[in-house]
User: What shape does this take?
Amino acid sequence: MSIKVKIKQDVRNEATRMESNNSTKLGDAEVEKKKLIEFKNVTKEYQLGDVTIKALDGVDFSIYEGEFVVILGASGAGKSTILNILGGMDVVSSGEVIVHGNNITQYNENKLTTFRAEDVGFVFQFYNLIPNLTALENVEFASEVCKNHLDANDILDKVGLSERLNNFPSQLSGGEQQRVAIARAVTKNPLLLLCDEPTGALDYKTSKSVLKLLQDVNEETKKCIVLITHNAAIAPIADRVIKVKSGKIEEITTNDVKQSIEGIEW
Ligand SMILES: Nc1ncnc2c1ncn2[C@@H]1O[C@H](COP(=O)(O)OP(=O)(O)OP(=O)(O)O)[C@@H](O)[C@H]1O
Ligand SMILES: [Mg+2]
Assistant: This one.
């Protein structure tokens, strides 16, 4: 049974100010963990004619190395905006985003391109595979540019697709295509894996197997995974849950004991 420790955002902000040198004084569970990601008072505004849309309105949070973090929130809350900024696909209106000690909000286009290519693995709801490349080619193509990439065959084997290497995306089921997309992200051997509603287009059973795969990747590689979902039921699989509401952090919850997705029903 997991024990949840609820940390109000104002307490979190105060604690963030107390933190120094990558160590935290938040509690036993987080002591000695190294900070991998930090959002500092991040805002994002979109201008549509005369209307200003505040997608993010003063967002602060930290994510630690090796964590599996779930971002929860209603449609339009700002979840994808957070992930896109974190992955270097969108830029802040104000505030700072620190990844592995680097302030990515100060990166120029070239540095951002390298950051996206080498440090971030993305998994999207609709897989985004290249239709005229095979499963193996899709994985190899994305990882070729990465210095420390892993072996595409090995990773496709790990995600259970060693028999389907030469199939094109159209010859694979949705779940299998998502496994290729996860393999593509993992093979890059990035600093972080960012998943935006990775099970949004999948049925219940396939969703569970994809989430199990992501849990296994997190356990085995100790890669930090940030996963967006609408589904509050899967929050117990995370180390921490960041709830977003109307462009603000509503609450950050710590699961002292993570649950396996296999034991969760919804
Ligand atoms: N390029 C854009 N131009 C204008 N408004 C945008 C743009 N991108 C996002 N927004 C707005 O910013 C707000 C946050 O959007 P975001 O996509 O982050 O929400 P979300 O939490 O991911 O929602 P969903 O669960 O539906 O994917 C929304 O009001 C959205 O309409
Ligand atoms: Mg979204």
Remarks:
- The first strand starts at residue 4 and ends at 7.
